[in-house]
Amino acid sequence: MSDRIEKRIELKAPVSRVWRALTDYREFGEWFRVELEGPFVAGQISHGRMTYPGYEHVIWQVVVQKMEPETLFSFTWHPYAVDPAVDYSTETPTLVEFKLEKAATGTLLLLTESGFDKIPAARRSEAFLRNDGGWTQQMKNIESHVAQTS
Amino acid sequence: MAAKRQAPVFAALGDETRLSLLVKLCSGQPHSISQLTRGTRLTRQAITKHLRVLESAGIVHSVRTGRESQFEFDPKPIEEMKQYLDLVSEQWDQALARLKSFVED
Predict the structure, then answer these.
(1) Nearest residue of A to residue B57, measured between CA atoms
(2) What is the ipTM of this complex?
(3) H helices, E strands: number in chain B
(4) pLDDT (tens digit, 9 = 90+) per residue, B74-91?
(5) B57 and A121: CB-CB below 8 Å?
(6) Distances (CA, A) of B47 to B16, B33, B71
(7) Cβ atoms within 10 Å, residue A91
(8) CA-only gyration radius of chain A, Å
(9) Which residues of chain A have a CB within 8 Å of the CB of B85?
(10) Which member of B84, B88, B96 has the closest CB to residue A9?
(11) Calpha distance B93→A134 (Å, rounded)
(12) In this predicted model, what pLDDT tens digit does every residue of A40-56 receive, in sequence order?
């Protein structure tokens, strides 16, 4: 069992296009489904509100770490922080990194989320119990929405 | 009990001695400290210290039988950790699929 999540995905779009989708706060909000208050700035907190039906009460917040143009975008956050009654700020956040590489067909995106070794056991089970399939359904809704509007 | 559950599972697993203790305990049978010390180069005290780390992460539980403590394996925290990672991982799969259609369309 690893303490990190790693994903690799090839996107048939130029690196510059993918970079914009990741780091322009409006574009990020479109596919991530969050309404952000302003642009991402390295070293600063980025606030927003989830736009999933049923999750609108959830405040979305990350601390932007690195913005190396067309190469690396990273932030720290508290994954699955959906319970307004819980103060997640006392927990050690995880680090999310998007790394971009030019590929023959477009862009290779490497996503890493690390630091799960610091997540308290109690919260992990709670988060799991809260997973009632709602997220999965929301994700599907969004996929069809994005397909219609883009 | 609630406070005990806060100990990170990965930290508890990140040690060869503790992993070898878990291998012994995985059989499902409770073991005493003497049984767990046998065949190792470590002292009873060292084994006890490692067992306490596993216990604070909720991976092992001690049961007192007579004069000796018996330790038994509890797979639940490790299963929960795996389920949690699977959940976060699935969310990323879906978010990246949306990103893909967003930039490719």
Answers:
(1) A121
(2) 0.77
(3) 5, 3
(4) 888 888 777 788 888 988
(5) yes
(6) 12, 7, 11
(7) 16
(8) 16
(9) 1-2, 5, 116
(10) B96
(11) 15
(12) 999 999 999 988 777 88
**pTM for the predicted model, two decimal places:** 0.75
Q: Among A18, A22, A7, A40, which residue's Cα sits nearest to residue A101?
A: A18
Q: Please calculate the CA angle A79-A84-A87 and round it to the nearest 5 degrees.
A: 70
Q: Who among B58, B93, B99 is closest to A21 (CB)?
A: B99
- B11: exposed, middle or buried (C-beta count within 10 Å: 0-12, 13-18, 19+)? middle
Three-class SS state of A35: strand
Interface of A with B (CB under 8 A): 1-3, 5, 7, 9, 11-13, 17-18, 21-22, 27, 30-33, 79-80, 109, 111, 113, 116-122, 124-125, 127-128, 131, 135-136, 139-140, 142-143, 146-147, 150
Give the residue from B90, B62, B103 showing the smallest Cα distance to A113.
B90
Q: Rg for chain B (alpha carbons), in Å?
A: 19
CB atoms within 10 A of CB A66: 14
B98 touches chain A (CB under 8 A): yes
